[in-house]
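[audit] Reproducing an earlier prediction to check determinism. Same input, same settings, fresh worker. If the tokens differ from the archived copy the diff job will pick it up downstream; this log only records the rerun itself.
[audit] input (194 residues):
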Amino acid sequence: MFYEPKDGHGLPHNPFNAIVTPRPIGWISSRGAGGGDNLAPYSFFNAVAYVPPQVMFSSTGSKDSLGNIRETGVFCVNVVEAGMAEAMNLTSRALPPGGDEFDLAGLPREDCRLIPCSRVAGAPAALECRLIRIEPLLGRDNHMVLGEVIGIHLRDDCLKDGRFDVLAFRPVARLGYRDFTVVDSLRQMARPDD
């Protein structure tokens, strides 16, 4: 099969959603200028640079996360572990403006250290970020948020032999459609030049 996205795919579900997988989930917490917290999962998310560390996520539509980040210039990326999958899914619910997804999902929160924002208490890792810029993308109301990671929280039980051990918490990833997976095995491969 070959298709041009501008002409449509003719399938019951968009295959593009399942092609680039697995995708890590950026569980983005933000706080509006008025003090209200927001928490939402984004599967168009990734790390994009090491030094300085930078991340990106994309939002379709002007959601509360986007508005809060525009107002305050900061956000936090919370890592989703297997035991938090259901709570993460709950936070994808569309709430009225000002609704609090932490409360909806029964999630405890902690203050970030360097930015005025809450983070998910007990998450395996949380990245405190300062906004670099919001970039408009092609299409109707698509936005890419770029942030510099200025503070990193690591849960102590996820550190083993000096490494951040993903098998200690089993991260959740998006596969497309309504499909998710959990990382529960790994394989190491040395680079040819090592």
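[audit] rerun output stored. Observation attached for the diff report: The helical segments are 16-19, 64-72, 85-90, 101-105.
[audit] end
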